[in-house]
Amino acid sequence: MRKPIYLFSFIAVLAACLPAKQDESSSEQKQDTTAVVSDASAANQLTDQQKAEGWKLLFNGQNMEGWRNFKGIENNSWEVVDGTLHCKPKDQADKRGDIMTADQYANFELAFQWKIAAQANSGVIYRATEEFDRPYLSGPEYQLIDDTGYPGELKPAQKTGSNYDMHAAPADKQLNPAGEWNDTRIVVNGNHVEHWLNGAKLVEYEFGSPEWKKLKEGSKWKDAKGYGMAQSGHVDLQDHGGEVWFKNIMIKTL
C-alpha cells in the first residue's frame, strides 16, 4: 500500500509545480494587449531627439487643432479616427473640401505617414495660399494615389510621389499598395524641393529654373499665373473624393 501513496504524492507535487494552461494564455493575451497599446500611444508623438532637432507636431492624434478648412468652406469629409486624420470615402460625406494648416511655412522639412484606399486619389499641397479658388492653383502637389488600381489612365507625372503633372517619380519606386502605410518627406528650402518616399528620393527640382518653366508650360498649370510663386504658404491635405489616412505629421523649419 505504501508505493501507491508515494506515487500519488509525487503526482500531486508535480501538478502543483506546473502552471495552469489557462493562466499562461491569459498572460500572453495581456502581453499582446500591452504591446498594442504601447504602439498606439507612440503615434503622433515626438521623441526627445526629434524635439532637439526642432521638429514640431502638426497633428496631435486627438482633434483637428492647428488645422482649418480651405477658405473656411464648410466640409464634413474630414474626421479624427484611431489617431489618424481621415478623409471619408465619397459616399460618406456630402460637403467636401481640403483642410490646411493654420500656420504658414517658407523653408521646411515635412514628414508624415499615409495610406490610401483602393482606387482613391489625394495629395499634399505645399506653399499653398488662399489667393485662388483652389489650393493647387498656388502650391505644388505631392501626389498620393492608388497607382495600380485607380480607374483611368495615369501619366507618369500623375502617380504617387510625383510633383503632380510636372516632375514624374521613378517607375521603380518602393510604394506599399493601397491599404498599407507609407512614409513621405517633402523638403522645401528656397527654390529647392525634394520628394521622398519610404527612404528614397524620388523627385528633385528648382522653382523658376528653365526646366521648371518648360514643364509648367506643358502642364495643367500653364495658365495658372500664381502656381509655384508663393515664397511661403500652408500645408494642404487634399480631398479628392477618395478615402485617405494621415498620421505622424511633423514639420521642421529650415
Automatic annotation (TrEMBL):
It holds the Pfam family 3keto-disac_hyd. Residues 1-22 form the signal peptide. It comes from the Bacteria. GO terms for molecular function: hydrolase activity. The keyword Signal applies. InterPro entries: AL/BT2_dom (IPR010496). Keywords: Signal. Residues 54-252 form the 3-keto-alpha-glucoside-1,2-lyase/3-keto-2-hydroxy-glucal hydratase domain. The keyword Signal applies. This is DUF1080 domain-containing protein. It comes from Chryseosolibacter histidini.
